[in-house]
From TrEMBL:
<dbReference type="InterPro" id="IPR029062">
    <property type="entry name" value="Class_I_gatase-like"/>
</dbReference>
<dbReference type="GO" id="GO:0008236">
    <property type="term" value="F:serine-type peptidase activity"/>
</dbReference>
<dbReference type="GO" id="GO:0008241">
    <property type="term" value="F:peptidyl-dipeptidase activity"/>
</dbReference>
<dbReference type="GO" id="GO:0006508">
    <property type="term" value="P:proteolysis"/>
</dbReference>
<dbReference type="Pfam" id="PF03575">
    <property type="entry name" value="Peptidase_S51"/>
</dbReference>
<keyword id="KW-0378">Hydrolase</keyword>
<dbReference type="InterPro" id="IPR005320">
    <property type="entry name" value="Peptidase_S51"/>
</dbReference>
<comment type="similarity">
    <text>Belongs to the peptidase S51 family.</text>
</comment>
<keyword id="KW-0720">Serine protease</keyword>
<protein>
    <recommendedName>
        <fullName>Cyanophycinase</fullName>
        <ecNumber>3.4.15.6</ecNumber>
    </recommendedName>
</protein>
<comment type="function">
    <text>Exopeptidase that catalyzes the hydrolytic cleavage of multi-L-arginyl-poly-L-aspartic acid (cyanophycin; a water-insoluble reserve polymer) into aspartate-arginine dipeptides.</text>
</comment>
<keyword id="KW-0645">Protease</keyword>
<dbReference type="InterPro" id="IPR011811">
    <property type="entry name" value="Peptidase_S51_cyanophycinase"/>
</dbReference>
Length: 839
């Protein structure tokens, strides 16, 4: 949910601790044994997150016995409370068993009643008795200080309402909350601040706001103390709050050596009787151990980081972890990747959030024992962050929600060293940049083609109904479906997609895995490399003509083109059949590699930083070039005639390589398209339109003003747009249509603060499109923001700025999650020399 408090805190030098004494005011006398449980959510809880809702209801007594009270105090309106009540009813509760409690210290903007009068209710026996009849309490998100001000007296003692909450909690009730409703759970309540302020070891104890500073000290207040085993923080990786939680855990070590940072749409389920903490939901919980850490001036050493995913548990008594059996493969000694990772320095670095970066670049990468990132303000003052594997480091991997990677990480060590970073423009840095030698394919596209394309950016979740239903709707449940497995190293993903189609209503007899491959699959008796000859098999080519839908699974896109193109680059008989059914109206779809093959120019490898600095290569190493290196291009299949497509876009930070490829080979007046994971771009050839569906977005890039050489000598005026579910583009008129549930942010910006540069994995809203949405488009203070990406003293300054035609859009989705789109953000790229000095 929107909340200014996390941004608008003035920077104050470190203050001595005086007025705040954790663990005193919120307690109900001496705590006896607590039978109740906690469900603590990191914010942005989706209404579709059934695991969290069902667990809360279960712990409250189940659908028949649960009686839930909602405390709306944190929010500026009753909307989120009403939404949570609707969600409870959706998941099986009777409306009469869910009530919004009249507890608030302020008026709500969406009612005629003056709810400020509700503050006195916290001392009324009627409200206390009402609470005592409940089996569950839920605190909605917003401003955590409004909750504590409502439930604590001016002298810091409990109100009658808070005493009643403690009574039912000790007797077995479940308490839950999201965002601000999570922040109040520990004795030490983090109310504001950011990671840079935390590493600066700066604290404040009163609410003083100043939006002019790029960093904010950690603002500490008294929480309600329901969580017994440490300090809690929320919106954790989305807002990159590791630094502030680190500083707080170091300052208040008496609260327990572990501190917990909860991601959005994710919950910690706390059992006081079992003394366990379990993770459920869609992301991770960071477990921070400062017991062996040391502070030396401005340097911090020996912070122990662990990242737990759904199903993982912490034993609160002995601090041990139990990793869920879904991640049953240890990465240690069995690392999947083997590449030299770039330091995480900005929006050109793959895996922008810290858990992702550490998973792929460190613990599941045989080539790295240490990785680094940076965090600094616009003056260059900040910190170098190093993350090390030790003898205690363990990584665990498995699949979740279909074919998505799921990692847990135990015991990575973090150090923070104060540094100063300076940048100097130098347009001659990358003279070794190699231009593309790729020869554009000579394709002709039939303008009367009636078929459709569904291009998914990878990591497609089996639960992503929007994408699956779009594919099935266009093919028909009674249609015939073919799956082409060629890209994958095994048949597992093809079988998984087949099971997914069946789960969405397609008859099993309607789905076939087609024998097309150029290599053998692991874990089968058959030698599938012999299938290479099938691409010109008359019988198979004729059979393909009977299909209504074809799906290409993910993997290595060069394996798909090799399995369907002849050695001279001409179409095989099977590919000719695919074209015939596509032209007549069939739907073709694919994920990851299955999306990359769709355009004329197929990006087969390379990273953004390396492509901008080194250019293009004519050689291909599938492992290393999926994660970095100069761009490698091959001939695609050309089903998408309107530009170049790239995938895994935001997660693998591929904006640089797509810009460079489009500048070299894009057609005039065409855009290029970067599709995020778990998201699809749908082409309707008859309507000449594109539509976005799924959980993230599609970047639309316009480099029509650029020449290829400009990409590495200094680019200007590249235009970026970002579309999310429901947004559309008319390919004839080039007009965008934004889903009508969003409103324009232009002249109605929600935030007002000085935004620090995007400097690495601890930058708030680490993914580029989220960073631009929060820091630029919905921030009245900024008309441009910067990011720096560099390695070994050379790099790029990226300036993202608003123009006259720039516009941002905001709405809610899936409950109370922010949903942004934007049009025409301008990007300038300038090569820079980089100098780093210790402070």
């Amino acid at each position: 949910m929107h909340n200014r408090k996390w941004l608008l805190i003035v920077f104050v030098t470190a203050l001595t601790f005086s007025s705040f004494v954790p663990g005193v005011s919120a307690m109900k006398g001496e705590k006896g044994p607590i039978k109740g449980n906690l469900v603590i959510v990191g914010g942005a809880l989706g209404s579709s997150n059934s695991d969290v809702y069902k667990e809360f209801i279960h712990l409250a007594g189940g659908e028949d016995d649960a009686r839930i009270g909602i405390i709306p105090a944190a929010s500026s309106s009753l909307k989120s409370s009403k939404q949570f009540k609707e969600d409870m009813i959706t998941y099986g509760l009777n409306p009469s068993d869910v009530e919004i409690l009249e507890l608030s210290n302020h008026d709500f903007k969406d009612t005629e009643t003056n709810e400020r009068k509700w503050k006195s209710n916290a001392q009324k026996n009627k409200v206390a008795n009402q609470i005592k009849q409940l089996t569950g309490i839920w605190f909605v998100g917003g401003d955590q200080l409004k909750i504590t001000d409502t439930l604590l007296k001016a002298n810091g003692k409990n109100t009658k309402a808070l005493d009643a909450i403690w009574d039912i909690y000790q007797d077995g009730a479940v308490l839950g909350g999201t965002s601000a409703g999570a922040a109040i759970m520990s004795d030490v309540m983090i109310t504001g601040g950011d990671s840079l302020g935390g590493f600066n070891q700066s604290f404040i104890y009163e609410d003083i706001s100043n939006p002019d500073e790029e960093s904010a000290p950690v603002f500490i207040e008294q929480g309600l103390g329901f969580f017994q085993w440490g300090i809690v923080d929320q919106h954790f990786n989305e807002r990159s709050r590791l630094g502030r939680l680190t500083a707080t855990a170091l300052k208040y070590e008496d609260q327990g050596n572990y501190a917990y940072g909860i991601d959005e749409d994710t919950a910690m389920v706390v059992s006081n009787e079992k003394q366990t903490i379990e993770v459920i939901g869609r992301s991770t919980v960071t477990v921070l151990d400062v017991s062996h850490a040391a502070v030396d001036g401005e340097s911090i050493r020996g912070i122990d980081l662990s990242y737990l995913a759904t199903g993982d548990q912490v034993n609160a008594q002995d601090k041990s972890f139990r990793i869920d059996e879904a991640r049953n493969l240890e990465t240690t000694g069995y690392e999947y990747f083997n590449f030299e990772p770039l330091p995480a320095t900005g929006v050109l670095t793959s895996y922008g959030t810290l858990p992702n970066y550490l998973s792929y670049s460190l613990v599941d990468n045989a080539a790295a024992d240490e990785v680094e990132s940076y965090l600094y303000d616009s003056t260059g003052e900040g910190y170098e962050l190093t993350f090390n594997q030790t003898a205690d480091t363990k990584g665990y991997w498995g699949y979740k929600d279909g074919q998505k990677d799921s990692y847990s990480i135990a015991h990575v060590t973090m150090n923070a060293t104060p540094i100063n970073v300076q940048f100097k423009e130098n347009g001659g840095l990358f003279e070794e940049h190699e231009p593309s030698q790729f020869t554009m394919p000579d394709y002709s596209f039939n303008p009367d083609t009636k078929g459709m394309l569904i291009m998914a950016g990878g990591a497609l979740g089996s639960s992503n109904a929007e994408v699956y239903e779009a594919f099935i709707e266009r093919a028909g449940e009674s249609g015939k479906y073919g799956i082409i497995p060629a890209a994958s190293s095994s048949l597992k993903s093809s079988h998984q997609f087949r099971e997914d189609l069946i789960s969405y209503g397609v008859g099993s007899e309607k789905i076939e895995i087609l024998p097309l491959s150029n290599h053998d699959f692991k874990n089968t008796k058959e030698d599938e490399s012999l299938w290479l000859e099938n691409k010109n098999d008359d019988r198979l080519a004729e059979e393909v003509k009977s299909y209504d839908a074809i799906w290409f699974v993910g993997g290595d896109q060069t394996d798909i083109t090799d399995a369907l193109l002849n050695e001279d680059g001409s179409q095989s008989k099977v590919l000719e059949s695919l074209w015939k059914i596509y032209e007549k109206g069939a739907v073709l779809g694919g994920t990851s590699a299955g999306a990359a093959i769709m355009s004329d120019v197929m990006i087969a490898g390379g990273g953004s930083f390396d492509t901008l600095s080194k250019g293009f290569t004519k050689t291909y190493d599938s492992m290393s070039q999926q994660e970095g290196g100069p761009a490698y291009l091959e001939k695609g299949l050309g089903f998408f005639p309107y530009g170049i497509v790239d995938q895994h876009f935001d997660n693998k930070a591929r904006i640089g390589r797509l810009i460079a490829t489009d500048a070299a080979h894009g057609e005039t007046n065409e855009y290029s398209y970067g599709i995020d994971e778990d998201t699809a771009l749908i082409l309707d050839n008859k309507e000449k339109s594109l539509q976005v569906v799924g959980r993230a977005g599609v970047s639309v890039i316009d480099v029509n003003t650029q020449e290829e050489s400009a990409v590495w000598k200094g680019d200007e005026d590249i235009r970026l747009s970002w579309l999310t579910s429901g947004d559309q583009l008319n390919l004839d008129t080039k007009k965008f249509s934004i889903s009508d549930h969003k409103v324009s942010t232009t002249d109605y910006e929600y935030f007002d603060y000085e935004a620090a540069p995007h400097s690495g994995v601890l930058t708030p809203h680490a993914e580029l499109n989220k960073y631009l949405s929060y820091a630029l488009l919905d921030n009245v203070r900024e008309t441009q923001v910067k990011s720096y990406s560099f390695n070994k003293g050379k790099g790029f300054e990226l300036t993202f700025r608003e123009g006259e035609d720039t516009e941002g859009f905001w709405g809610y989705k899936d409950g109370n999650k922010d949903d942004y789109s934007y049009l025409n953000v301008y990007l300038d790229i300038q090569p820079v020399e980089v100098s780093i000095q210790n402070r």
